[in-house]
Amino acid sequence: MSPAAARLGVLASRVRFEEKNILTALERRGVACEHVDPRTLSVRAGEPWDGPRTVLNREVGHYRALYAAAALESAGVTVLNSAAATALCGDKWQTSAALVAGGVPTPETLLALTPEAALKSLEELGYPAVIKPLVGSWGRLVTRVTDRAMAEAVLEHVAALPSPQSHVVYLQREVAKADRDIRVLVVDGRAVGATYRRSEDWRTNVARGAVSERCPLTGELSALAVAAAETVGACLAGVDLLEEPGGRLTVLEVNDRVEFRGLQSTYGTDLDVAELIAALLTAKAES
Amino acid sequence: MQETLIASACPECDAEISLGQDIRVSEIVECPECRLELEIASVEPPQLILAPEVEEDWGE
């Protein structure tokens, strides 16, 4: 199929398990699809783009994903997820603010505009607390601080970081949890699968070596994950939740370009995530 | 069982790497010898280059 004839595009600079399986699922459906590499992409303001009219955003870099989505939308392309959803999900503070505004339970969060203000905010929040970069994933630079001395040291390092954005500090109450969190995959307003992610590290990211196990998809879990995805406007989402002591569920974050290799491996042939995404993308292109 | 299509060489350590028939441009593979991440730059002919380093904003 010539790229010019493609109606669907998959935007990705890295073709990993997820992208490869989505492209294969689209081809299996006989859909004309094009792999669009954002490293060679440019969009001229005010002019149409000569690529696919519907694009799945699978770019691994947040800023490249965000600006690619915004630029393509300005050229009349439908992007999944939307640039607005990527902007919300890619910024931890904006995600938290959206979840709170949408009435979705989420841990108590504070935004401090300087490292000095963060130290005062931590006294208010109490220890242990968690300091997270506003933008970032895979648990990178997420730091658990247990007392004021540790917070002072971490915030001194934060203050020395070169980027002004790094000096805006996102603080969150630590949720006392078991050695696991829960990832729910939401596709087009439906929770389709869930996994526990278990780790000896307090950060239960699969990218940090956490192991996925299938988690019963209860009504409560599904409803909360779907509500979280809707709140940030994501039709494809990986919603991360924690179980508070007592069993109350709280939403930690929503991932707009969700990795699903771990979840897929726990479901085996019971679930084909790539096929569900290909079906959604095809339906969006036809609507 | 997937049929091996071609052998290519790691651009870092020159180890031979067997690539499957279903490889795609931009796909990431790991060198079995030096464990570096490699990117498939082209399929025909097969060409491997060093994959980009992880950047600060990478994730999901």
Automatic annotation (TrEMBL), chain A:
Entry annotated with the keyword Mitochondrion: no
- GO MF term (any one): ligase activity, forming carbon-nitrogen bonds
Q: A single Pfam family, by name?
A: LysX_preATP_grasp
Query: GO cellular component annotations, sorted alphabetically?
Result: cytoplasm
Asked whether the keyword Protein transport is assigned, the reply is no
List each copy of the ATP-grasp domain by range: 96-282
Keywords associated with the record: ATP-binding, Metal-binding, Nucleotide-binding
Query: Could you tell me what this protein is called?
Result: Lysine biosynthesis enzyme LysX
| Organism, as annotated | Streptomyces termitum
TrEMBL record, chain B:
Q: Pfam families this protein is in? A: Zn_ribbon_LysW
Q: Which domain of life is it from?
A: Bacteria
- What name has this protein been given in UniProt? Lysine biosynthesis protein LysW
The record lists the organism as: Streptomyces termitum
